[in-house]
Amino acid sequence: MFQAAVRLSELSLLTMAMTTFPFPFPQPGDKNNKCDYNGWLYFYGEYPVSISKCRDLNANLLVFDSNVERVVATKYLQDLGVPFVNSWFDSIWIGASAQGTNRRFVLSKNGAPLSYARWCFNQPDFNHRECVAYADFLGYNFGYHDFECLGLFPFVCENSAI
C-alpha cells in the first residue's frame, strides 16, 4: 500500500473530464489543448497527443503496476473530480497500446509487456482499436479497454520529477 501511495504522489493530473470545466472547453487545435482552471493546467487529446505531451514533461502516460495502485489512484482521481460515470466516454488514456504489435498490448514507454493489466469485461474486443483507456463500464468495475487512438480523453502523466 505504501508503494502505491508513493507512486500516487508521483502522479501529475494534467486533465479531467470535460464536464468539470467551464465551457467552452478547448478543442484539438487550440493553443496547447489546455484549460486554465482553479490554478491547474488540464490537458486532453488524442492518444498521440497525450504521449507527446507527457514526453515533453519527461514523463509517461499512467500505467497501473498493481491492483493496489489502481484502486488508490482511481480514488485519488475521483477525489480530484474525474467523474468516471459515463461508461467509455469518461475514460482516461493509459500508457499501453498495440500499435504495430499485431494486437499484443505493450507499454508505450518502452515496448515491454504489461506487468499488470485489468481489462474490462470482454476487452480488448476490436482489432482496429489499438490504444488503451481506463474506465468504469456499466458496473463491471474499473478496467482497461481498447479504443481508437484518435478518440479524445483526459490523460495523466507520471514521473517522480514532475
UniProtKB/TrEMBL annotation:
Signal sequence, start to end: 1-17
Residue ranges of domain C-type lectin in the record: 37-158
Sorted UniProt keywords: Signal
Signal among keywords: yes
Gene3D superfamilies linked to this entry: Mannose-Binding Protein A, subunit A
InterPro entries: C-type_lectin-like (IPR001304), C-type_lectin-like/link_sf (IPR016186), CTDL_fold (IPR016187)
Lineage top rank: taxon: Eukaryota
Annotated TM spans: none
KW Signal (keyword) present: yes
Pfam family, one: Lectin_C
Protein name according to UniProt: C-type lectin domain-containing protein
Gene behind the chain: Dvir\GJ26723
